[in-house]
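Write out the 3D structure for:
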Amino acid sequence: GYVYKVAASGATDHHLTTGAAGVVKLYVTENASGEWPINALGLDDGDDIASVAAAVNALCAAGYDSILRLKPGFYTCSATGLNIKNATLAMDSAIIDASAATSAFTVPGVVSVYGTAPTAIPDLSVSPAKGGKTLTFASAHGLAADDWILIYNPTDYSYSGFRTYYRAGEYAKVRAITSSTVVELWEPLYAGYTAANVDCYKANGYATGKIKGGHVIGPLGTGVNKNVACHFVRYANGAELDGVSDYTTGSWATSIENAINY
C-alpha cells in the first residue's frame, strides 16, 4: 500500500483528496524503501501520465532529490510529461506512450531532466589563452569556489563551418577566488577566446536527475509536438540515462543540450 500524510484543510499544495466530497487533503510520502511512489497519486495501468505530471513536477521543482518510482505498466501521455530535475526516476519496465499527444508540451520532452538556464555574469576583460587556468572579468564576478562558468561565443559558425549553430565555448569550474574580478579554474581551458567575442554565464542551477529503465514512445512526427523528444536533457550536470529505450517518428528520440559531465 501507500503512505499518506493528512494536509491542513486550507492547504493548496496537497497531492490529492479523498472522501465522497473530497474533504480530506493528502500528501504522498515516501515508502519504507525511501521511494516516492508516483502511482500513489491514483495513477493506474492505462492512465494518462499528464494527470499526475503537475504534482510530480512541483515536487521536483521544490527540490526533491531522491527516488521516484513508477510501477510497471502501460501509460499514455497526452500533454506535458515529467521533469524530474534532481530526482531519480525508476521506471523499470514501465512504458509511456505519447504518440497520440495533441496538446503542446511546455518542456520538449516526454520524460526530462531540465534544469535552470545559466545566468549572465560580467564579460571578460582579458582574452584567455588555450590551456590557461585564470579568467579575468571586467567587473565583480560574484562567483564562489566550485561554481560552474559557461564561456559562450554567440556568433554563428564560431566553432565549425558545418552548421550555423555550431558555436564556440566551454564550461569551466572555479577552483579559487583570486579577487573580485579574477578566478582560478580547476582545469586548463580547452580553447582560447577573444574577450570581446564571448559572453559568460554562471551555470549553478543545472539539474542532476537520473532516468533508469523504461520505454518511451514519442509524439508523432507531425503536428505541434513533432520536436518533442522521448528523453530530453537540458541545463544538466551529471545527468544519467541508464537502461532506457525509446521510439519516435518525430525529430529525435533523445535530445541532450547544454549538459556537463553527461
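Residues 50-61 form the longest helix (12 residues).
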